[in-house]
From TrEMBL:
DUF5703 domain boundaries: 25-145, 147-277
Protein known as: DUF5703 domain-containing protein
Source species: Allotamlana fucoidanivorans
Domain of life where this protein originates: Bacteria
InterPro entries cross-referenced by the UniProt entry: 6-hairpin_glycosidase_sf (IPR008928), 6hp_glycosidase-like_sf (IPR012341), DUF5703_N (IPR043757)
Classification via Pfam families: DUF5703_N
Gene Ontology biological process terms in this record: carbohydrate metabolic process
């Protein structure tokens, strides 16, 4: 090893200093499932865990547990009752250590440690005297098989026994059978519970637990001072349930289990070294800034359950949904009405929208600055694996490339009022395709920031541009006889502008997205030959970003023109600030234009810039305007969760528009906090890095984040001054501009 490499390793080790995520400690049991604590595994596995009425409760979950109807379901409930141990009395402790991915429950001499090895849940207990455990599994659905054995039991659901005709669904939307992405028909999900010393006297009965009624299987362990219970969670295509119990029992071997624990600790250690944000670390735990970064870290921990997962987490609850009593939700900013099915842990609001693209983007954006490649991949893979479906949809509409509708189900089909051409029948969504451009831009930014190899994604990303060019050339020719407008530019009409406008021409987020994605693709050497020539030609004809006047000042407009207005939540002009960065702090000469635009949003849409809950992106938007005090106020509401907390765990945001824990609330908040700290200029090389573009001087912070051109920035800011700044590679330090 040469001296240069040794120096690089030393510098890298020094750069990757360890900062601990805050431990959450409860000193009393919980009221119900809403007051549960999340335990993250990986590959999509996780559990809600809480202690109630002297028992330890677990809602088991896997992000691959999609049934034949395309709905994500829980895997059931496990309840553990320790004999002669009172968990409701003084001295009770339940804690989550995100640093190690472990939940600990203790009372006196009794202790329980719960952790995941990938998709397998390990429960280890110790006590000063021998005692039994009553071990019970409950489920509120009746379409599940159950097998009992000497070690415990196995339960499973096979979609093919209740199969839905996915091919017929697709054909009704103009998608032929050979383009269908059937990820459900042969899917099997469930679990295997194994007790090391065996489970005895297993009986079945009806049960009413929490808010639901269902079926219960109960057994008893042998009396021991130490117990080991292992639960393997499974959700995959063509899985063989007969192998699940054997997988669980491999953890009975002490050496194997210790090796698995060591591996998990190493994974969590690597995870927390990738990036961090810690605000006011020396302050009391009720300090607003302290809470903001605490909950940022906790929500990132929750997202980590899906490291290298098969599907993206759902925006409306992820895998940590619970049954929620109607009277438990109070004072939220969006009307909370009792809904059918709410008594079941599977329930989530906006279930029928499935993967609503504009919401789902918040599962991807915060992973880039955090350096979480393994948590971004499920979002990108969702689009890549449904490319054939998207390409067939484009062909049905006489267009080239690919087109993904705004509301998509797990198969990549339109999930809301689908039309025979595969588009959505709701007027405010029919021509809303712009999020596919944004996900393409996300992939390009991940390549630029984390060095992600996106070679296998280039076809569908290029296809999004090809669709807009070919589809709107055809539409314009139908009306005018010419493919382009009178100025020789692409005329994007009829279009939606997010959910705000219908009958729009050249909506802002579409124009910005097309420009950025086309430019980004042309920077990639793998784009060659006719592909490159085609993109160069398309770029020549892309329309200008719509600019106009309001209240006598120059502003960015929502579109060149439009015919109808719908959901007025959308500060759509801000897409030009972020994620596309045409205006705002990263282009200082445009800052006045950006601020004028924000300050002159039309009165009928003014509500959209006054709200910060759920998916609202206004922390991000204000950060692009370099307004530190407003960013501070908004990010406190977004992440501190100390105004109207609805659940006991501080990163269970919501429900807001959607459900609890609201994942697009947490994701948009994380991204906003990152943008307050660091904002990169979009440039092929030597782009400026704007440090503290919207950071309040009275907040101390230590952070490590990833930014453009595969750069890592580590900084300590205290008492209004930078005390330490490390940039890797060091050559990028010259590009840093300190704004604070």
């Amino acid at each position: 090893m040469n001296l240069k490499i040794i120096k690089l390793l030393i510098f890298t080790i020094a750069l990757f200093t360890e900062v601990k995520a805050q431990e959450i400690v409860w000193n009393s049991p919980s009221k119900d499932a809403l007051d549960s604590m999340p335990l993250s595994g990986s590959l999509g596995a996780g559990a809600n865990i809480w202690v109630q009425d002297g028992a330890i409760w677990l809602y088991l979950a896997h992000n691959g547990a999609y049934d034949e109807n395309g709905k994500l379901l829980k895997l059931g409930c496990v309840k553990l009752i320790p004999e002669n141990i009172n968990l409701d009395s003084n001295g009770f402790i339940q804690s989550l250590d995100p640093q190690t991915g472990t939940i600990t429950i203790s009372k006196g001499n009794f202790s329980m440690s719960i952790w995941f090895s990938n998709e397998t849940l390990i429960i280890e207990t110790a006590n000063s005297f021998k005692h039994k455990f009553e071990v019970a599994y409950g489920i509120w659905r009746d379409n599940q098989k159950f097998d009992i054995n000497d070690s415990g039991f196995v339960w499973y659901h096979k979609n093919k026994e209740y199969a839905k005709d996915v091919v017929l669904m697709a054909e009704k939307q103009g998608i032929p059978e050979n383009s269908v992405c059937d990820v459900t028909t042969n899917r099997v999900f469930g679990g295997a519970l194994a007790v090391k010393e065996g489970l005895h006297k297993v009986t079945k009965s009806d049960v009413k637990w929490q808010l639901w009624e269902g079926y219960l299987w109960t057994g008893v362990t042998m009396p021991r001072s130490k117990h080991l219970i292992v639960v393997s969670l499974i959700a995959s295509m063509n899985s063989n349930e007969n192998t699940w119990q054997k997988k669980a029992k491999t953890f009975f071997n002490d050496r194997f289990r210790e090796s698995a624990k060591k591996s998990e600790l190493a994974k969590w250690n690597e995870f927390w070294k990738r990036s961090y944000i810690n605000i006011n670390s020396d302050a009391v735990p009720t300090n607003d800034g302290y809470l903001v970064s605490q909950n940022y870290n906790l929500f990132r921990y929750m997202l980590a359950c899906n490291r290298n997962g098969e599907f993206p987490l759902l925006f409306n609850g992820g895998i940590f949904t619970t049954d929620v009593a109607y009277d438990r939700i109070t004072g939220m900013t969006y009307s909370f009405k009792k809904r059918e099915g709410q008594e079941f842990p599977d329930f989530r609001r906006w279930w029928g929208t499935h993967f609503m693209s504009q919401n789902q983007r918040w599962m991807g954006w915060p992973t880039i600055a955090a350096g979480d490649v393994d948590m971004l991949k499920p979002t990108l893979e969702f689009y890549r694996k449904r490319e054939l479906t998207a390409r067939a949809r484009a062909k049905t509409n006489n267009a080239e490339g690919v087109v993904y509708p705004e509301p998509m189900d797990v198969w990549g089909l339109c999930s809301v009022k689908p039309l025979p051409n595969g588009f959505c029948g709701s007027k405010h969504l029919t021509y809303h395709f712009s999020v596919m451009l944004e996900i393409g831009w996300m992939a390009l930014q991940a390549r630029n920031t984390m060095g992600l190899d996106i070679t296998e994604h280039l076809e569908w990303i290029k296809g999004t541009v090809m669709f807009y060019d070919s589809f709107y050339r055809n539409e314009t020719k139908k009306r005018t006889g010419s493919e382009l407008d009178k100025d020789g530019m692409l005329n994007i009409y009829p279009s939606n502008a997010l959910e705000l406008l219908s009958g729009a021409t050249n909506p802002i987020e579409v124009v910005c997205g097309l420009k950025r994605v086309t430019e980004g693709l042309l920077e990639i050497d793998e784009i060659k030959g006719s592909d490159r020539e085609q993109l160069i030609e398309i770029k020549k004809h892309l329309p200008e970003i719509p600019i106009g006047e309001r209240s006598g000042v120059k502003v960015v407009k929502e579109a060149k023109s439009f015919e109808g207005i719908h959901n007025k939540w959308e500060p759509i002009e801000m897409y030009s600030f972020w994620p596309y960065r045409y205006f705002g702090i990263t282009q200082p000469e445009t800052l006045k234009l950006a601020r004028n635009t924000w300050d002159n949003i039309p009165k009928n849409r003014i509500r959209c810039i006054n709200e910060d809950y759920s998916w609202m992106a206004n922390v991000v938007n204000v950060s692009a305007l370099a307004r530190p005090e407003e960013s501070k106020r908004r990010v406190i509401y977004k992440l501190a969760n100390n105004k109207m907390p609805q659940a006991r765990f501080p990163a269970f945001f919501g429900p807001g528009h959607d459900w609890i824990p609201d994942h697009n609330w947490g994701g948009s908040g994380m991204t906003g906090l990152q943008e307050m700290l660091i904002a990169p200029e979009v440039k092929e090389s030597n782009g400026k890095i704007y440090l503290f573009p919207s950071w309040p001087k009275d907040w101390d912070v230590e952070f490590k984040l990833h930014t453009a051109e595969n750069t890592i920035v580590e900084c300590i800011y205290k008492n209004g001054e930078i005390k330490k700044l490390k940039v890797f590679p060091e050559i990028r330090k010259k590009d840093v501009i300190v704004c604070n």
